[in-house]
Amino acid sequence: MRLPIARLPFLLVGMALVLPGPAMAATLPDSLEQRIKACTACHAQQEKHDAFFPRIAGKPAGYLYNQLLNFREGRRQYPLMNYMVEHLPDAYLREIADYFAGQHPAPPPAQPSGAGTAALARGKQLVLTGDSGKKIPACIACHGQQLAGVAPAIPGLLGLPRDYINAQLGAWKNGIRRAHAPDCMAQVAQRLSDADVGAVSAWLGTQVASADARPGASIALPLPLHCGGVPGSGAQVAP
């Protein structure tokens, strides 16, 4: 995939800040806040509402760490991210993940939706109750009743750009995005029709997270699916 010209300034920022050389070290303070400016250049606290730059502040640290590993090890593909983390050690990735997990900016406003009533109702159904006929579990079964995620490794779903949700579900359906095996989200995405994907993203986009919403401390078991990125999820899985 060719990197758009508009993204090149961010690549140069990332090269300078995430992997500083001697010249940079002589002019910039060597602090985590300075180094993660390569991240906040794209993942700003203010929502951009596009398919490229989701808000990562407030996500569980284990989830963020897993995603950095996925980019470093090629399970997720986005050239800028793959390049920036290619040579970063595990300890540094954990430090970055912990930093963003501790940030809790105000939630973004709801996104206006042009989806019809039927599509929004279908999206709400899939998120809150799932579809047993298609073996699609409810999103809240894993992502929490408030859809704020669950520590240590399940992300929240509210406040994400609608186009980003569409893009990621599509990437799972097409095998472009992968996670630790067994990849439960790939299984779910394969069971969603294109219309279902649009319905879920449309409904989620119209919802606003509570200002005090935080990832849950634990998840209700049994889980509907075994997820390789969720520690202990294979111990109790619903039949």
What is this structure, in a nutshell?
The chain is mainly α and about 240 residues long. The protein has twelve helices and no strands.
- As an assembly, this protein is single chain
Largest sheet: none
Helical content (DSSP H or I, runs of 4+): 40-55%
Morphology: globular
Distance between the termini: 40 Å
**Any idea what the radius of gyration is?**
18 Å
Total number of beta strands: 0
Order of helices and strands: HHHHHHHHHHHH
Poorly predicted spans: 1-17
User: Structural class per helix/strand content?
Assistant: mainly alpha
Compute the average pLDDT: 84
Number of discrete helical segments: 12
Strand content: under 5%
Labels describing this entry:
mainly alpha; 239 residues; globular; 0% strand
Could you characterize the architecture of this molecule?
This protein has 239 residues and is mostly helical. The chain has 12 helices and no strands. The protein is globular, with a radius of gyration of 18 Å.
Write the layout of secondary structure elements.
Elements lengths: L7 H11 L3 H6 L4 H4 L1 H4 L20 H12 L6 H7 L4 H12 L15 H12 L11 H4 L18 H12 L10 H8 L2 H12 L34
Helix pairs in contact: 5-6, 5-7, 8-12, 10-11, 10-12
